Amino acid sequence: MTSHVVGYPRMGPKRELKFALESFWDKKTAASDLEKTAKDLRHAIWKQMADAGVTLIPSNTFSYYDQVLDTTALVGAVPPRYGWTGGEIGLDIYFSMARGNATQPAMEMTKWFDTNYHYIVPELSPETKFALSSRKAVSEYKEAKELGIETVPVLVGPVSYLLLAKADKAAPKNFNTLSLLDSLLPVYKQVLGELEEAGAKFVQIDEPTLVLDLEASKLEAFKKAYSILGSDLGVKLLLETYFADIPEETYKTVIELESVSAIGLDLVRGSKSLDLIKKIGLPAGKTLFAGVVDGRNVWANDLVASVAILEDLAITLGKERVVVSTSCSLMHTAVDLKNETKLDSELKSWLAFAAQKVLEVVALANAISGKKDEEFFSANAAALASRRSSPRVHNKAVQEAAAELKNSEHRRATNVSIRLEEQQKYLNLPILPTTTIGSFPQTPELRRVRREFKNNKITEEEYVKAIQGEISSVVKLQEELDIDVLVHGEPERNDMVEYFGEQLEGFCFSGNGWVQSYGSRCVKPPIIYGDVSRPKAMTVFWSTYAQSLTKRPMKGMLTGPVTILNWSFVRDDQPRSETCMQIALAIKDEVEDLEAAGVTVIQIDEAALREGLPLRKAEQASYQDWAVHGFRITACGVKDTTQIHTHMCYSNFNDIIHSIIDMDADVITIENSRSDEKLLSVFREGVVYGAGIGPGVYDIHSPRVPGFEEMAERARKMLAVLESKVLWINPDCGLKTRKYAEVVPALTNMVKAAKQLRTELSS
């Protein structure tokens, strides 16, 4: 039986690409240095999979920033504002689209389906002209071939590319991106032809939108696309799907596409697909790529259970028509468990990172082929048994407390409008109050202090003194800028989820388990292996110190239970909702401790609430119910005078606006500027939001500093659909990744914009 991997992490086992990118962006190294690092990483990945015995190894899954942006470069869909005049797209135009430049903002960034990865959203219009403008797919295939490694080039499919795109600002209101399909397909035909000429036998085309609820017109687009692509084609096409079950009507459509030789299905998150295959079958001559190894979590595969699935498929389809694969690209999991030296042996035995998952794929293929590695299977069985029986996984008291939560909706007793009036009496804020989202720049010196404390190179007293010094500087800066509601800047925090997970029971942490979030930004998700509880207060010390430095309100900063859940590798032995409720109880205790310590504004970030929304509509209501309930649990016990904020970023919020309202926060700050103010369309359509709201006035993920008038104009658009008494002025997101040279002028302009608008409103 053949083995296949959908994709592999591109950052490197020690984040080599991250550091190479940031060095290049800071003009410390040349493009040639960046390109060498990238090439070395690609070669190492291909050789690793070849040595492991993978039969079908992917290429063109490497990217300097994002695979969708790579596709934009491939087809030459560069927005006119970047001044591209044709030809091969270079790094300057590429990174301008990703990050913006001195004169132009970056393209919109949003979540890749229901993951924590972000893609750069294509901007299209009726005037968009497609042309082959990057030969990356062909050159990387040839590069691997020169090493003696045959690969399967991977492309983002043409229909998904168009469905994931947006109309640019100049496009007519009725413009449909799918209307560009006829002009896009010739570019794909050209790429496939060049890959065939280079010697490629198989090409993987990722069409993840096939798992969504698609209307008939979109299914017709798939039929049309693959009918045209398939004519005179000499390479076999693998149509790859992932992240959910493929709907029955879609499956029927896909398997009848004559040009498609194989279909890849996620059999981890798409558990219903097995029944679909048995019910409908698969036409003769077509192959199933069975995604039985989880590409989105870190738990060791249950090899015996996977063998049972594969054997069942072999009986249904024939062994020669089944390929063992990962459920999706392994870019959504950590790179290699061998780099973990601090995890204890028991926990480590329960885990499998990308490198180990490759070995699992090969072991499964060998087992079905009659070459079972008995030692490998025996070690796997022992690890699974250890995890099931370990006392560190289960806490009866936590389970009982979480079970009791089902008896209440945990709503605050008073309506939000009344609470806001009580809070204003206490806080006495100006109209259009200004604030930031939480974090301030994490300087090299600050990172050094945290690193030295973690490595026992400085004392706790020295560490506390250094962090308090940073907090003092951040508070002083905000007062000088005349910001109304302050933050302490989070200098003690490495990551908004990891910081809390390190202080909660039931979590463990890798040393190098980095996962790409966007561009060079990597996160190291906690691993939730057991029942969650809070042994002691986590933030009160730092928040009360910060409040002691100023008479202005100081926000206590927490990460909400849904975001902690969605940004962690979550245990798979109980429903996610149960784990969420346990985390909610822990955060509730922290909220009430902050209030008791005199903190009157508490922000509970739920940046990832939208991210966890299931892709299929039939499953969304249940998720929204328990996710929103989890947030309400955290804040249900505070006084009316305690103002609860929350924050959300870089997602499409319009389809969950009623759930956002149901969270019953007093104030929500929300990303708005990078997404071209799509959020405002909700309020134009008549949605009434009675709580405070701060749609961001500038994009913090770009080094560009917008002028105060640009920010003021954004806020004026908000005032056209929102009452001035509920509007806040703030950035899109936290400032952790920016430099002070960018932050200070940007916040200066933000405050100036707010004051200008106050003057306009009072005149």
Automatic annotation (TrEMBL):
Gene3D superfamilies: 3.20.20.210. It catalyses: 5-methyltetrahydropteroyltri-L-glutamate + L-homocysteine = tetrahydropteroyltri-L-glutamate + L-methionine. The keyword Cell wall biogenesis/degradation does not apply. SUPFAM superfamilies: UROD/MetE-like. Its EC number is 2.1.1.14. Residues 432-755 form the Cobalamin-independent methionine synthase MetE C-terminal/archaeal domain. Signal peptide: none annotated. Its cofactor is Zn(2+). This is 5-methyltetrahydropteroyltriglutamate--homocysteine S-methyltransferase. The lineage of its organism: Eukaryota, Viridiplantae, Streptophyta, Embryophyta, Bryophyta.
